[in-house]
UniProtKB/TrEMBL annotation:
<protein>
    <recommendedName>
        <fullName>Glutamate-1-semialdehyde 2,1-aminomutase</fullName>
        <ecNumber>5.4.3.8</ecNumber>
    </recommendedName>
</protein>
<comment type="similarity">
    <text>Belongs to the class-III pyridoxal-phosphate-dependent aminotransferase family. HemL subfamily.</text>
</comment>
<keyword id="KW-0627">Porphyrin biosynthesis</keyword>
<dbReference type="GO" id="GO:0042286">
    <property type="term" value="F:glutamate-1-semialdehyde 2,1-aminomutase activity"/>
</dbReference>
<dbReference type="GO" id="GO:0005737">
    <property type="term" value="C:cytoplasm"/>
</dbReference>
<dbReference type="InterPro" id="IPR049704">
    <property type="entry name" value="Aminotrans_3_PPA_site"/>
</dbReference>
<dbReference type="InterPro" id="IPR015422">
    <property type="entry name" value="PyrdxlP-dep_Trfase_small"/>
</dbReference>
<dbReference type="Pfam" id="PF00202">
    <property type="entry name" value="Aminotran_3"/>
</dbReference>
<comment type="subunit">
    <text>Homodimer.</text>
</comment>
<keyword id="KW-0963">Cytoplasm</keyword>
<dbReference type="InterPro" id="IPR015421">
    <property type="entry name" value="PyrdxlP-dep_Trfase_major"/>
</dbReference>
<keyword id="KW-0663">Pyridoxal phosphate</keyword>
<dbReference type="GO" id="GO:0030170">
    <property type="term" value="F:pyridoxal phosphate binding"/>
</dbReference>
<dbReference type="InterPro" id="IPR015424">
    <property type="entry name" value="PyrdxlP-dep_Trfase"/>
</dbReference>
<feature type="modified residue" description="N6-(pyridoxal phosphate)lysine">
    <location>
        <position position="277"/>
    </location>
</feature>
<comment type="pathway">
    <text>Porphyrin-containing compound metabolism; protoporphyrin-IX biosynthesis; 5-aminolevulinate from L-glutamyl-tRNA(Glu): step 2/2.</text>
</comment>
<keyword id="KW-0413">Isomerase</keyword>
Amino acid sequence: MQTTSLPETAASDALFERAKKVTPGGVNSPVRAFKAVGGTPRFIERAHGAYLIDVDGHAMIDYIGSWGPMILGHNHEAVREAISNALTNGTSYGAPSEGEVRLAELVTKLTGAEKVRFVNSGTEATMSALRLARGFTGRDFIVKFRGNYHGHADGLLVEAGSGLMTNADGLGRSAPSSAGVPHAYASLTLVADYNDPEGLRRLVAERGHEIAAIIFEPVVGNAGVLIPTPEFRAALHDAKRSGLLLIADEVMTGFRLSLKGACGVLGIEPDLMCWGKIIGGGLPVGAYGGRADVMDFVSPQGPVYQAGTLSGNPLAMAAGLAVLSELERDPGIYGRLDEYTSKLAEGLASAASEAGVPLAVNRVGSMLTGFFQAGPVTRYDEAARSDTAAFATWFREMLVRGVYWAPSQFESIFVSAAHGERELDSTLHAAVSAFATLGG
Ligand code: PLP
């Protein structure tokens, strides 16, 4: 196979060597280390619009968008201004401020949640929502789906997706998916298959009375993109009859697929929702919310404890407000994102087919995964059959050509409002040559 050599990365290489001496694996989140695709991770100096610029001066079309938050593109003027203005008033108070009320008002208005609580990450949001569900129902068990990822809280690192699908131990491990998670803890997490309505119905029929909540990605991004079938959505809804709570993890899909998230697009009615990423406009924010009778169980109103030194941070609230206000002001953004990503999907499929490379493209709105296999891919076990070696080669070939794709087969890419015709043409041009190196 003829592949192209990587361009000069001396500055990134040097930083990575320094980083490895002082940080495990040289990174602060595993997928960033490029372990699944090889090569040195690029260290980023700055970002603007649709581009990341690394410390060696390479400008790359960015399809990660900080793993989702940057829906408006990097360094967006309105967001930058909002953060600068907030900064003049100090950085953290440890006491309530108006920004928290305004963002909560906007989130409840847009999503239909009756009450929300802000935290500092998606992980905190899902962890807190599950504690709340357990406190509300008085039950201990939860259900999650194989290949869904809900952050790194102990009870959720059970057959999880995202970086856990490509870590050194490979696919399909049984619970727990990480060392350090007590088996006793993992045993409270029941695992079912996504898009297997019969399996879910059986589980709920047998154990529904013990289950506090089902947590799920309403469109999966963390096994690559998987779309829930109508039958599966119906089984989720029917499960509520056993008194459990449905928790939609909209950390990735919230405000990305629509102002009402994936649930809004697909007509799913959860009891609780979790958010992260876009809700913080690129600053560390998460949130959970939903039915008022459930949310009123959260302290100080109710008995379920949850707190945070930096929760509701004024800079983070300002950034989140700026992004959500922009999306609300210009809802046409979603149509434009859809158009770009659908052209990207078509272009990738035709470039792959031209080169004789099997590729199954799954896409919803501005989320997309090209699985290196013939497909179709609707379930986790099908996603896991992808040719990860071919993907890794393709990833490196794209990077050489200035396109920064997600460095794992089992991730979604994210398009931003700053991606335009120029970026689409360059991406597809790069893709044609990258697929050609595989096909040849
Ligand atoms: N839930 C989903 C669906 C996610 O995709 C992620 C992160 O990618 C999380 C939760 C965890 O969010 P965070 O990384 O902010 O803790």
